[in-house]
Design brief:
39% of the residues are buried. The protein folds into two domains: 120 residues, no CATH class; 242 residues, Transferase(Phosphotransferase) domain 1 (Transferase(Phosphotransferase), domain 1). It is globular, with a radius of gyration of 21 Å. The strands form four sheets. A six-stranded antiparallel sheet has the order 1-2-3-4-6-5. A two-stranded antiparallel ribbon has the order 7-10. By secondary structure, it is an alpha+beta fold. The structure holds adenosine-5'-diphosphate and magnesium ion (MG). Magnesium ion binds next to loops. The site of adenosine-5'-diphosphate has 18 residues, from strand 3 and strand 6.
Amino acid sequence: MLQPIFLELLLFSNNYYDSNSPQNNRIPILTDRKVEGKRSIVFHATSGAVKRVWFLVKNRTFVHPDPTTKWVYYTPVFSFFGKNKKELEEEVETMKKIDGHLKEVGGSTRNLAVRAREYKNLISKKYTVKVRRASGGDFEKKIRDIKTSLNQRIKFGLNLLSGFKNLHQANFVYGDPKPENCLIYNNRSNNDRENLKIADFGKAKKVESDRVLSYKGNTRFAPPEGTLSKSGDVYGAALILIRNFEEEIFKNEKDNSKTSLYTVPNQDFDAKASDKLRGVERFVVEHKAFLAGNPGVSLSSLMKRKKMGKLTDIEMKAQQTAMHDYITLLQFRLENTNLKSKAKGLCDLLKDMTKANLKSENSFRIDIQEALQRYRDWEKLPSHIK
Ligand SMILES: Nc1ncnc2c1ncn2[C@@H]1O[C@H](COP(=O)(O)OP(=O)(O)O)[C@@H](O)[C@H]1O
Ligand SMILES: [Mg+2]
């Protein structure tokens, strides 16, 4: 029984670690399964806390998602009392509700991956969810890809904000913004133009009147107020945009190991960021003003999470100042790329999206509608991009 597992580990160590994407460092599991009537199809999976993600692969020696298949499958990771199964079922329920609400109010799901089909026992006799495969992979991978052009980055930004705008229109909050939760699809009917969709609705919630919900998503993209709200999504969206555009700077660096705009000085330093993190994600982990921890669970990240939602206005203001300094630096560096004078408009918008909500100063973050409108106006400005 053990032998095939060792064989699989051996195979993976040779040909899988070809991507920088953090979740791709997880060890995938290869097995032969019967799926939708076809026998002996080999799968490869990445696993999160709740769901295991399965791809079809063509053969065992060259382990990549089969480019000819349209689908990806989710099954729950084993848990006692079927907790993860319930969570996955709830996620699908949320996806369906978002889809339904948007149909009612005439909103668009173009930038939301909310279509899914459920099966009682498609894989390993487990509850299985079938979704469209994003052939471009997740956004973190695309952001890091030096082949991603500035024009594509600008379009992805628009997709991202449109996705959040529609989600908020359906009266849902997302609650776990990060590039790995956004997927890149190729639109065959539109000259293979790539389209970004927000996916992974595991933390998404319907907005209830006045009830304050605590933020349960990743800590790096969490807003200073540490609560789950539409406004918090706007903050997280801004950080995703920062990751998107700062890689335009990194890709032009001669030394590719330089993945930071800014070295946090000793007096502001908190904890060493994981080597897997780049740019603003490194910055928020290393800077003491933020409650951001490295991916995964550790004692220090748990302690930081405990403080979430409890910061004073002064502490939140310190976060705002640190983030705005980072964005100013981003602007200076982007002015040396093809964005040139357009960099300022983008960075002014990012600052308004990352404001701390400070009652004491009557200063508040903009909402997603305003952010999208300003991004659209900005995008249309004359550019120097060839
Ligand atoms: N439809 C899909 N197409 C391609 N890759 C996917 C798809 N769904 C998930 N993935 C990959 O699996 C990873 C984890 O999926 P996600 O839905 O975010 O699960 P988790 O809840 O475990 O974070 C994503 O970051 C992405 O790399
Ligand atoms: Mg995820």
